[in-house]
């Protein structure tokens, strides 16, 4: 069993598991390509123009700057994306994120009072948006970059509606009969 199945209760069913939309990786990818192109150009320039120890120091400096920039602006955002999970089960909505410090929010489906989404023109074209979940007593929680946000909204709305419409599972006594006085006397 892998994540998120190992975070669920014994009889809890996984309905949806998503990472944030891939659009949050566009800038890190562009930074990686641009930084690599600039570093390659600078390495070629250093090779052609400098000699000796200065050349070695300049080559190392360019390599270190490239590495720091790529880790800071490309690897870190990818890692954040990879370790962010939006999960819907038959009982709750879970949001988990973090690598070293793992944080999460659990919202029981029965406590959700309102589900909304919003997305602008670009988000509509990319089929992403912000999901807003309001629970009975707390301030609304906003989750950005949810892929296929309209589908997630509808799915979550149906989960909330289904949880409020479930009949109470009342146990019936063994001797219960619709016509018998015994059943009516016991309050069943």
What does this structure look like?
The protein has helices at residues 26-49, 52-82, 121-126, 149-165, 181-185, and strands at 14-18, 85-89, 92-97, 103-108, 112-118, 128-135, 141-147. It is 44% helix and 23% strand. It has 188 residues and is of the alpha+beta class. A hairpin with a 5-residue loop joins β6 and β7 (141-147). The chain contains 5 helices and 7 strands, in the order βααββββαββαα. It starts with 13 loop residues before the first strand and ends with a helix. The model is unreliable at 175-188 (pLDDT under 50).
> How many whole angstroms does the radius of gyration measure?
27 Å
Average pLDDT confidence is 86
Major beta-sheet overview: 4 strands, antiparallel
Relative strand content: 15-25%
Query: How many helices in DSSP terms?
Result: 5
What structural class results from the helix and strand content? alpha+beta
Q: Biggest sheet, strands in spatial order?
A: 1-2-3-4
What is the CA–CA distance across the termini? Answer: 43 Å
SSE order: EHHEEEEHEEHH
Oligomer designation: single chain
Number of strands: 7
Helix content estimate: 40-55%
Choose one word for the global shape: elongated
- Low-confidence runs (pLDDT<50, min 5 residues)? 175-188
Would you summarize the structure shown here?
The chain is of the alpha+beta class and about 190 residues long. It has helices at about 25-50, 50-80, 120-125, 150-165, 180-185, and strands at about 15-20, 85-90, 90-95, 105-110, 110-120, 130-135, 140-145. Helices cover about 45% and strands about 25% of the residues.
